Amino acid sequence: MSKEAAAPPRRSYFNLNPGSIALHLLPAAAFALYVYCNQGPFQSTQCLTIGKNCRSSSFTYMEGTFEKADFYAPVARYYNSLFLRHEDLGGSLAVFTDGVPVIDLYAGFKDLEGTKIYDNTTLQNVYSCGKAVEGIIIARLVQSGLLNYDAKVTDYWPEFGQNGKEDIRLVDIMTHEAGVFFLDDDNKEMSWNSLKDREAFSARLARQAHYFGKDHKGHKRAYHAITRGWYLNEIVRRVDPQGRTIGQIAKEELMVQYPDVELYYSHFPENNEWWESRLSPMVDYPLIRVIGRMIIPDWIRNHQRIGFPGLRPAHRLTYQVMKKDSLTAKGLSLSFVKSVAGLRTKEAHATESTSFSLKSNAHSLAKLMAMMANKGASINPGQEPDLLSREVYEEATTFYSEHEDAVTLTSIPLSRGGWVKSTHLHDIEGLKGVEIQGWGGAGGSLIVWIEELGLGFSYVTNAFGAPEGVLGDIRGHTLLELVVRARKQELGLLPKPEPRKAEENKPKEKITLLQKLRLRS
Ligand SMILES: *[C@@H]1O[C@H](CO)[C@@H](O)[C@H](O)[C@H]1NC(C)=O
Q: Where's the Beta-lactamase-related domain (predicted)?
């Protein structure tokens, strides 16, 4: 017998059955998963799966303004670290104090491979952050006497008074209590085209029944994530003397009065190149990690050695959004858009959905927030007009109510104008006791003003973060916490920061899960 014949025959892949293939693939899949989860999510697929063509972890593109480093250096350092750790891909960050920009940065890339830089010409869809600007435009119409928060919607739009909505007021729409957080009439198909047929769509919005019924027994608040802007636009175009929509007013008034502010709800120039070159694509958070956060038990997640203490669990609404018939899924999903890429098409840009379609940048949004922090008054008096009169600012930002929301499963205190008004936003430690106003958007963008600190803040990203909260995720929250601390130090409300020791400047050794497991055994 020859030597070769004695060796056990190597199993041919021809006679592997599916079961044993799965068995062999399991360790490979586990390894891929391990690599995948140990690197920041926003890398090319090649990098995450086979470790090839990874972007550098010691360099990221960043440009713009950064002042008062004595106080704000920790903010810039953390922002930079988000890109180096691939927790963010591209975006902008802007902070105004007393109306002056101290941070105005553009960073990272538009694509996972890192071939297109994210510069100061880049625009970003900021989703529900557009609601904060929507709220400002409604307040301006209140100021001109064209709208009144307490008036019934039927005063402006008689057809709205059907199916239990007869007594709904403008303030109910602003505070997500109008009961029309999704459209279920006749189970009609939705598409971008159905939005284009204005009169038919308007009739459809008017016909929609109040979901909780006329008496509003039980639930009151249900986040009108998608629909608020559609309903508001029906009202706005009926009261505006020129019949304009919210998006047209943003463009013809705000963008003209404040020339450095860019706000596009739609109506992009017809040619594809303009928005192809300016509007950054959005990158989704990897589904596998979402599922990981959902199924890994808390004791493992928080375990000092094998887990990742500090990593937040998936928000409650993540579980609900996956159940097709839940109110969360109904309220948050745009059934006809299959992925985030579907919001960046010519068809999508041809229609206006002000609750989720705003394209802007951090500078523009932080500037508006800075004027709100200035109680509506101009931050460049003599050169630019006030955003709102003091009187309307006070009225619009008066606290309205706080209820558990049937869609987001969260209690968020709201003002009459429809912005969050909270001194305990998401129970974030560094924000306790500071009154935050503003709103957040899907994916993690966050725009906020803080009156008492004279602060306008905006974090804009093209990289969907983990679904950790309703308004912002760990990235925006940490940035805001650091900004608030720096601002308090600057104002002498907290002790001045100690100069950094040379020791702290040394990069910390990266402890991976593998090393942690070794330490344990
Ligand atoms: C954008 O950056 C360029 C330099 O890269 C600068 O010249 C220009 O003024 C900046 N534009 C704005 C609006 O900040």
A: 89-254
